[in-house]
Design brief:
Layout (H helix, E strand, L loop, with lengths): L4 H5 L2 H8 L15 H9 L2 E2 L5 E6 L5 E5 L7 E10 L4 E10 L1 H9 L4 H11 E11 L3 E8 L2 E8 L5 E8 L17 E6 L4 E5 L3 H5 L4 E8 L7 H10 L21 E6 L2 E8 L2 E7 L5 E4 L7 E10 L5 E3 L3 E4 L8 E3 L5 E6 L7 E6 L4 E10 L2 E7 L2 E8 L2 E7 L5 E8 L5 E8 L17 E2 L9 E6 L5 E10 L4 H6 L15 E7 L8 E6 L7 E9 L5 E3 L3 E4 L5
Parallel strand pairs: 1-3, 20-22
Antiparallel strand pairs: 2-9, 3-8, 4-7, 4-9, 5-6, 5-8, 10-11, 11-16, 12-15, 12-17, 13-14, 14-15, 17-18, 17-19, 21-28, 22-27, 23-26, 23-28, 24-25, 24-27, 29-30, 30-33, 31-32, 31-34, 34-35, 34-36
């Protein structure tokens, strides 16, 4: 065996002491071990760094030993050891070797005869276990050390290969690596909704001392609580994905995996991890100690863990986790549809909820009619629980369905965009008495650039084989209002909402040959270089109008 320079610098009595320490769960006594075996074991133990967090990988059923000694010249000093299991429960112990004065004297005089030293060491030294623990919680041991003692830490995992972190410090006057927890480290649930849970916790003392370097991070999942941040990260990795090095410092989107979604809003960082067991959500919210978790599923149990994180060292301390079940979604309100009756529904795009309409048919054939008034609407129709239609609608849409007497139809409507949407709905068994007029192939209005002048424009639109009434309206608009006016158009509103001065004309026309069912109109008396919004309304037998798609045209500036 080759010894590094470091081994030669160790005091000989400490070197000899390490050779005869009992390893964890080894049945043979020290008297049965040879000096060479102890020497080999010593070289396979490692020095534990003072003042730094050390990550240690453990193989199943194979103990691993680390040791530390104080600097020479220090008589008594406090020390702390903090061990954080990152997965399964582990066993760990602290053993201390104390040598007698006579043995230390031999080492100091330079009597380095191997057999003599071994015999003297065996008689005058003692190895004892001063602490042991088994579990997966973060555990800290505080003790006093002397220069004549060598401490050995032994770790063992009996379930599977795992890793842990160990932090040793002998300088208790300097700032602690880990943020402090308050006297009461519990998380309180102060509000529960159908899709939200509001939490609060007491501030860490570290926040008042080092606010700019401390932040709180919240972990939300549906499986169980985690006792440390590294345990949570290990669980996410074991689900088949790679996690950024640490929750608090995962601020770059370039660190994210395809299964992750990062959301930055109002000085909060949210990372959503899509794992096989569900969703693991991580939110870092600075130093706020009250937070409402949004977008949860109703009637679902969630587990909440809060970690206070030191941004400089990336070390963290865990509050006592809690859990809560969101409220059950109330039964959705259902509005009954009646034959021939038209209802208009306004849908909230932010809530993204379905509006439910129910209809029990007294006929074998029925027709649902939808007229989109504003926004975008998703329509889902079921008959006796089975889907018969599902699509986004635009303009006017008919669904003709066949079934049996007393079939139950459920119509579900929701906004297909974040802004509000509205739609008119009618169900009727009377195909021969349509509510809306017969529609052309397209509801677009066309303008002719070559026929534009400084004070007139020419527009055209398609008609049908049925004689109908068409009314044209115009409205002067500013260039910066075009987008807003088009967005706010209510396509279900009729001419009754327009000012009388906006009316241009009304006319009747039709053509049996659909190829020739086109009409044009030249609108005069316009201002040069001005934008106008043109609308055409089509009236059917029932008198309910259908609005063509609005057209914006600008007159020529110079002629």
């Amino acid at each position: 065996l080759k010894m590094s320079r470091f081994w030669f610098r160790l005091p000989l009595h400490l070197f000899m002491a390490a050779c005869f320490c009992h390893p964890m769960k080894v049945s043979t006594t020290s008297s049965q071990q040879s000096f060479k075996t102890n020497l080999f074991n010593f070289y396979h133990s490692l020095i534990l760094a003072d003042g730094k967090e050390t990550t240690i990988h453990l193989l199943k059923d194979i103990p691993k030993r680390y040791y530390f000694v104080l600097e020479e010249g220090r008589a008594l000093a406090p020390f702390t050891v903090t061990v954080t299991p990152c997965d399964v429960p582990i066993e760990w112990s602290i053993l201390v070797h104390k040598a007698s004065a006579s043995y230390l004297g031999k080492a100091t005089r330079g009597d380095h005869d191997t057999q003599e030293i071994a015999k003297s060491q065996k008689a005058a030294s003692m190895v004892s276990t001063i602490f042991n623990y088994k579990g997966n919680s973060i555990e800290t041991y505080m003790g006093m050390s002397s220069h004549s003692s060598l401490y050995i830490l032994e770790f063992l995992s009996t379930e599977r290969d795992t890793h842990i972190t160990v932090y040793l410090t002998t300088d208790t006057t300097s700032e602690n690596l880990y943020p402090e927890l308050p006297m009461d480290p519990r998380i309180d649930v102060i509000g529960i909704g159908h899709t939200t849970v509001t939490l609060t916790w007491k501030h860490s003392p570290s926040v008042s001392q080092h606010r700019e370097n401390i932040q709180y991070c919240l972990l939300v999942n549906e499986k169980h609580n985690y006792k440390s941040l590294c345990a949570a990260e290990t669980a996410i990795r074991s689900s088949g994905m790679k996690l950024p090095p640490a929750l608090a410092l995962s601020l770059s989107p370039y660190l994210l995996e395809p299964q992750q979604v990062m959301i930055l809003s109002k000085s909060e960082l949210s990372i959503i991890n899509k794992v096989s067991s569900g969703e693991v959500r991580q939110i870092c919210m600075g130093t706020k100690n009250t937070y409402t978790v949004p977008s949860l599923s109703p009637n679902t149990q969630y587990y909440f863990d809060v970690f206070v994180v030191n941004l400089l060292t990336n070390a963290s301390a865990a509050y006592t986790g809690t859990f809560a079940r969101t409220l059950e979604e109330p039964e959705p309100k259902v509005t009954e549809l009646k034959d021939g009756k038209v209802i208009q529904v306004v849908l909230d795009g932010k809530k993204n909820k379905y509006y439910n309409l129910q209809y029990q048919s007294r006929y074998k054939k029925i027709q649902f009619i939808f007229q989109l008034c504003h926004g975008q609407v998703r329509v889902h129709i079921t008959k006796n629980g089975k889907t018969v239609a599902s699509e986004n609608i635009s303009g006017l849409r008919y669904f003709s369905l066949k079934g049996k007497l007393l079939d139950t139809y459920l119509v579900q409507l929701r906004s297909a965009e974040e802004s509000n949407s509205s739609v008119k709905v009618q169900v009727s068994p009377h195909f021969h008495k349509p509510l809306f007029p017969l529609l052309p192939e397209s509801l677009k209005i066309k303008s002719f650039s070559k026929l534009r002048s400084c004070n007139s424009v020419t527009i055209a639109w398609l008609g049908t084989q049925e004689e109908s009434k068409y009314c044209v309206y115009k409205k002067r608009i500013e260039e910066d209002q075009v987008w807003m006016d088009l967005q706010n158009l209510d396509r279900c509103s009729g001419p009754e909402t327009r000012h009388k001065s906006e009316k241009v004309l009304c006319k009747y026309f039709y053509d049996i040959n659909l190829q020739r069912a086109v009409t044009t109109e030249t609108i005069n008396g316009l201002d040069a270089g001005t934008l106008y919004l043109f609308d055409v309304y089509l009236f059917g037998p029932s008198g309910i109008p259908v609005r063509y798609h609005s057209k914006v045209v600008k007159t020529r500036k110079k002629c």
